[in-house]
Amino acid sequence: MQVGGPPVQLGGPQAPLGSPPVQAGGAPGFAAAQQSPARRVEAAPPPATTDPLQAAEPEPRFTWPLSPVPQVTRPFQRPETDYGPGHRGVDLAAAPGQQVLAAGPGVVVFSGQVAGQGVISIDHDGGLRTTYEPVTPTVPTGTQVFAGQPIGTVNPGHLGCPVEACLHWGVRRGDEYLNPLALIRTEAVIRLKPWEPP
């Protein structure tokens, strides 16, 4: 005689034989998946710079062509085209007759008159050429010069100059005009004066 009816099985129905064990916290194999090592994702390296102008920009190598450090009366304005408007150099405040100094070592490739103005051009390493005007040259073509060597004196009469005299100083590489102030090896403060077109 059975008392109290059929035996009651605690914990619910038993899993059939051959079934995978149920891990605590989820479906079969969930814990094993949690224990597997995480896959490392390597960040892609940043793309290399391909800007040819940035890659070819020359390092600062020049000194000021006037001493003491002059005021800039008109800054460089890069022309958009070879024959477009702009200011292909900088104008530096000077005194009439003030000495002009070579901005870097090189060879004088021109020393003479252009359109009634005295001009000196010097070729430097790296394909750079500096030009100084209006000046009275004191070195002939073919002279090897060092940085800071006197090469002429400033003449008054530069167009648009707001002071007694200005030295126009230009730098180019081939047919490309560069900003001379970006090529000066100095940490001195560059003082800019307001420029008004003539």
What can you tell me about this protein's structure?
With 198 residues, this protein is mainly beta. It has a domain of 119 residues: Glucose Permease (Domain IIA), CATH 2.70.70.10. The protein contains 2 helices and 11 strands. The strands form 2 sheets. Strands 1, 2, 4, 5, 6, 8, 10 and 11 form an 8-stranded antiparallel sheet that branches. The chain has a 3-stranded antiparallel sheet with strand order 3-9-7, with no helix packed on it. The longest helix is centred in the N-terminal third of the chain and has 6 residues. The protein is globular. The N and C termini lie far apart (125 Å). About 19% of the residues have low confidence.
Task: Please sum up the structure shown.
By secondary structure, this protein is mostly beta strands. It contains two helices and eleven strands, in the order H-H-E-E-E-E-E-E-E-E-E-E-E. The model is unreliable at 7-13, 15-34 and 45-55 (pLDDT under 50).
